[in-house]
Amino acid sequence: MEVKSRAPGKIILAGEHAVVHGSTAVASSIALYTYVSLRLSTPSSENEESLKLVLKDVDLEFSWPISRIREAFPDYVALLSSTPASCSGDSTKSIAALVEELSIPEAKIGLASGVSAFLWLYLSIQGFKPATVVISSELPLGAGLGSSAAFCVALAAALLSVTDSVSVDLCQQGWHSFGEKELDLVNKWAFEGEKIIHGKPSGIDNTVSAYGNIISFRSGNLTRMKSNVHLKMLITNTKVGRNTKALVAGVSERMLRHPGAMAFVFSAVDSISKELTTVLQSPTPDHLSVTQIEEKVEELMEMNQGLLQSMGVSHATIETVLQTTLKYKLASKLTGAGGGGCVLTLLPILLSATVVDKVIAELESNGFQCFIAGVGGNGVEISFEHSS
Amino acid sequence: MEVKSRAPGKIILAGEHAVVHGSTAVASSIALYTYVSLRLSTPSSENEESLKLVLKDVDLEFSWPISRIREAFPDYVALLSSTPASCSGDSTKSIAALVEELSIPEAKIGLASGVSAFLWLYLSIQGFKPATVVISSELPLGAGLGSSAAFCVALAAALLSVTDSVSVDLCQQGWHSFGEKELDLVNKWAFEGEKIIHGKPSGIDNTVSAYGNIISFRSGNLTRMKSNVHLKMLITNTKVGRNTKALVAGVSERMLRHPGAMAFVFSAVDSISKELTTVLQSPTPDHLSVTQIEEKVEELMEMNQGLLQSMGVSHATIETVLQTTLKYKLASKLTGAGGGGCVLTLLPILLSATVVDKVIAELESNGFQCFIAGVGGNGVEISFEHSS
């Protein structure tokens, strides 16, 4: 039997950077997914039993003999899959040894932490069972769209779905969601994986990926909410790598140089985030037409983008995207850390496909990569495929 | 004898739009001038006596026989040039009649109000004396650089300098300034001229043009201050005509839609304006190097520009200028109403001429017009030329 799972990426709709200084931010899931396929091996004596990880997008395949894994974890005590645990110092060393033995090409060495997270989640939840895990993703890596969180969430979901810790209906057809308790467990395990990849993740990316929809967050408190509006975003990846730490530090330094002005800038962003959550939750179509809501969101995006520029986190490529979409009277804002990364452009529901094609063609002619995705959809889902 | 006067244009360094909502704004003079040459005619019987106005830049020449002017003002009572007065209803009609008789080409009909202001100032200060007045300017018209105020200030200065209302040293060589009392008078008369051209001017443009330097203003209160820093600005005229009223109304409407966020945006601008006045008045080079001051000004400009964008008053052409100057790591902001108009770019003192040439060439290849001007210099000045 094959278990498939998919977990969405995320975008920051409003409040990035300002959230570090106490403002509200709003994140949402996007309908771009990371897929995990898990196939537990049936016992066989022909081949040596092994754990296989296939990263389809980057064309890499890793395999560990189960005997080698056992050897790396001599004192292994089975964890309870119902009790998410952090990777201890000893386990970190054992995993590092297993990853070092792989021949990851230098150019793709950034994947090593993801492989480590994979090993931790796999061993913690499935122990020494041989299996083949195939990963593929619609999300660009390292572009601020939550690809690592989607990876951890999808992986945790697939691994947990074949344990006693979650009860799922194996006979249900197609993609289906978990119950609330199951999602909590998936989310907690995914967070443990994120910690291996990012050190000190905020927990926002995995939460959005697990539960989907929209999340507002402020001072470490996350509030989940359901959007009543179906927004469609054009997401443009400028492909310019960002140094998130340096960008965050830059804003803090500007805050120290101009405490008065910057405090007002952050407060303005806080108002925008709060307004956005109100707009997105407004009951439609009774109160406002979809077009009216889209116009409000566009205005809030434009205002937030201006405030991000005043924080100094824009970038020439971001400005190029803004300039290009402005020609078509479309509102855009950077999403995430800025300094490159991705830019959001709202695609109004009544916008013609011809215009969308033109905008994308023009953006891609600049070497950017474009995605279209619905905003605020479902979180992680699974599907069972029974081979005949 | 010929009297020459020159009056500078102005730029808004910080605070445009926000000033309408109670924030502080900062304006400064720029070393781009409107020149007036006044030559009172010596009594002659050969030609009919007339008042001649030559607008050199637009290639127009107007002439009124003195007898025709007398006829238009049958009840003329000489005003005291020392007591600036508003153009009354009757005078407005008489002037309108004189202007209507001119054959101003349709494309240049916008100049009619300037000609009216000229007639009011001339008749009020010089009465029915025949003369030739020649005007030329380095300032683009209607681009938000205070060309009409510079015109009124230079005109009032030239006209007053040959009356008893101001005491000037006719023998002094070259350009020289007025005393404080004389400047007050010039400024008041210029304001009367501005009222004819603009209806309800703020008084900021003529005040900057008369006194020069830097002026901060808030809720109708003007504070003159002297800058200790010599900044050089690249001023790019996008040549896109602005509808100032519509732009101001647009910001007010956005304020009504998003009162919370916009109030913080305006407060942030207020902080920026105040910081800017502090930076510009900081004693140099004791406290900060010129480069440090320039960096501070650049950061404040970038922050202000972001806030203007969040007010929605930017424009595709403004973004093009920003994008272009950003490539050369130069900071820019729109100045004035936005929606086209002019953009300021700080030119650091250590910036090489080669880079400046490159930036200008690139901007001009977009059809823009570039000026380089010192900021915060002298106000109106006069010079007497004694023909031998």
UniProtKB/TrEMBL annotation, chains A, B:
Residues 296-347 form the GHMP kinase C-terminal domain. Signal peptide: none annotated. It is an enzyme of class 2 (transferase). Residues 127-212 form the GHMP kinase N-terminal domain. Keywords: ATP-binding, Cytoplasm, Kinase, Lipid biosynthesis, Lipid metabolism, Magnesium, Metal-binding, Nucleotide-binding, Steroid biosynthesis, Steroid metabolism, Sterol biosynthesis, Sterol metabolism, Transferase. Pfam families: GHMP_kinases_C, GHMP_kinases_N. The keyword Magnesium applies. GO terms for molecular function: ATP binding; metal ion binding; mevalonate kinase activity. Pathway: Isoprenoid biosynthesis; isopentenyl diphosphate biosynthesis via mevalonate pathway; isopentenyl diphosphate from (R)-mevalonate: step 1/3. The keyword Transferase applies. Its main location: cytoplasm. InterPro entries: GHMP_kinase_C_dom (IPR013750), GHMP_kinase_C_sf (IPR036554), GHMP_kinase_N_dom (IPR006204), GHMP_knse_ATP-bd_CS (IPR006203), Mev_gal_kin (IPR006205), Ribosomal_Su5_D2-typ_SF (IPR020568), Ribsml_uS5_D2-typ_fold_subgr (IPR014721). One of its GO terms (biological process) is isopentenyl diphosphate biosynthetic process, mevalonate pathway. It is found in: Cytoplasm. PROSITE patterns: GHMP_KINASES_ATP. GO terms for cellular component: cytosol. It catalyses: (R)-mevalonate + ATP = (R)-5-phosphomevalonate + ADP + H(+). Its EC number is 2.7.1.36. Belongs to the GHMP kinase family. Mevalonate kinase subfamily. PANTHER family: MEVALONATE KINASE (PTHR43290:SF2). This is Mevalonate kinase. It comes from Pisum sativum (Garden pea). The lineage of its organism: Eukaryota, Viridiplantae, Streptophyta, Embryophyta, Tracheophyta.
